[in-house]
Design goal:
- By secondary structure, this protein is of the alpha/beta class.
- It folds into two domains: about 1-115 and about 270-375, Isopropylmalate Dehydrogenase (3-Layer(aba) Sandwich), CATH 3.40.718.10; about 135-270, Isopropylmalate Dehydrogenase (3-Layer(aba) Sandwich).
- Helix content is about 40%, strand content about 20%.
- It has helices spanning about 15-30, 50-55, 60-70, 95-100, 170-185, 210-225, 235-245, 255-270, 310-325, 330-345, 360-375, and strands at about 5-15, 40-45, 70-75, 105-110, 120, 125, 135-140, 150-155, 160-165, 200-205, 230-235, 250-255, 280, 285-290.
- The protein has a ten-stranded mixed beta sheet, with helices on both faces. Strands 5-6 form a two-stranded antiparallel ribbon.
- The longest helix is centred in the last third of the chain and has 20 residues, at about 330-345.
- It binds 3-isopropylmalic acid (IPM) and manganese (II) ion.
- 3-isopropylmalic acid binds near residues 95 and 261.
Length: about 375
């Protein structure tokens, strides 16, 4: 427990990032009302748009703050035309750079469908999956695999002949993320919706790839330390199908970086779309939290995007801080926030444009803040 409060470094970033972060701050302010806040927010500019203005992705003090903070909250990065001289996305320092630099090895993506949330499929709003059946977490390895910067081009004169991305799977990287998944399955209140069984599913392509075979071997070794948790296996292609057809079978799924990246966007459809998808990037001493929808340049400044992904990122952040510092104040606030989010969604009073409604980003934040005030600490 930290009596002086937790230092939170906030990077609103590009596009719609600042709009959703503004609402995230509104919700944090509402939680803190009536008592000294147990957290202090420090906001820093950075990202692709900042790069276009200044030639730098962020300032040295912003980078230093990411290392000294107790937690990090990022809006979104990426802007059309904002590219680093080497061709990389300008703003990568704030997402991929933090994952690498702070060794945030587990990317934790909850996929829970709340009552009152609709699915948008083929442009129509339907209730496809039942909230009873969708409550899983994908744990994605976050530091290696095809994301390892071991890549390049072979050129003949000016012409690229070959482009290479190297898939690196290490014992350490696999072991720690698999252990993270089993610890999570142990800590979660419930098992899979289908049968209540605590289960960790290893998602890979070990019928073809050596790295995946190694990942699965490591999975088995770690799993043997958790006899009370069921082990489950799925090849990634089949998993994509089962996830959509039978989400109730899944509790915690663990996968390598690139497969996890793709599967978590697919999983977001089950939870109502990217407007609800949040991610925690967790290391040993640091953690970064983000809505995963990206900067959505098309909607920037329109006050239209769904801020719930940011609210769920804030909830993940409070829960992580509460657990890490054994601070029940933070855990209680995370519970209170989740109740307020669930209540607001169930009432249908914060139906944003992506849900077929007309509620703006700001109004959605105001509705959640009201719900928080109505749920005394
Ligand atoms: C994500 C995003 C990032 C990734 C992008 C922004 C580099 O898609 O967090 O899932 O590929 O990991
Ligand atoms: Mn992604």
């Amino acid at each position: 427990m930290k009596d002086t409060g937790y230092e939170i470094a906030v990077y609103p970033g590009d596009g719609t990032g600042p709009e959703v972060i503004r609402e995230g701050r509104r919700v944090l302010d509402a939680l803190a009302e009536g008592a000294p806040a147990p957290w202090h927010l420090h906001e820093y500019p950075g990202g692709g748009q900042y790069f276009l203005q200044t030639g730098r992705e962020w300032e040295p003090e912003a980078q230093a703050a990411s290392r000294s903070a107790d937690a990090i909250l990022v809006g979104a990065v990426g802007w059309p035309g904002a590219t680093l001289p080497n061709g990389d996305l300008a703003g990568r320092a704030l997402v991929l750079g933090l994952r690498e630099g702070l060794d945030l090895y587990a990317n934790v993506r909850p996929c829970k469908l709340y009552p009152g949330v609709r699915h948008r499929i083929s442009g129509e709003y339907r209730e496809v999956w039942s909230p009873r059946n969708v409550d899983l977490v994908v744990v994605r390895e976050n530091t290696e695999d095809l994301y390892t910067p071991a890549r390049g081009r072979l050129r003949r004169g000016e012409e690229t002949e070959v482009a290479i991305d190297t898939r690196i799977i290490t014992r350490k990287g696999s072991e720690r993320v698999v252990r993270f998944a089993f610890e999570l399955a142990r800590a979660r209140a419930r098992g899979a919706p289908e049968d209540g069984v605590r289960r960790v599913t290893c998602v890979d392509k070990s019928n073809v790839m050596e790295g995946c075979r190694f990942f699965r071997e490591t999975f088995d070794r770690v799993a043997s330390e958790y006899p009370e948790i069921e082990r489950d296996y799925a090849y990634v292609d089949a998993f994509a199908q089962w996830l959509v057809r039978n989400p109730e079978h899944y509790n915690v799924a663990v996968s390598t970086n690139m497969m996890g990246d793709i599967l978590t966007d697919l999983a977001a459809v089950l939870q109502g779309g990217m407007g609800f998808a949040s991610g925690a990037n967790v290391g040993v001493d640091h953690a970064m939290f983000e809505p995963v929808h990206g900067s959505a340049p098309k909607y920037a400044g329109k006050n239209q995007v769904n801020p719930f992904a940011t609210f769920f990122a804030v909830e993940q952040m409070l829960r992580w801080l509460g657990a890490r510092h054994a601070d029940p104040r933070l855990t209680r606030q995370a519970d209170r926030l989740e109740r307020s989010l669930a209540g607001t969604l169930a009432s249908g009073s914060a139906r944003t444009f992506d849900q077929g409604g007309t509620v703006t980003t700001r109004e959605a934040g105001e509705r959640v803040a009201e719900a928080i005030r109505g749920d005394p600490r």
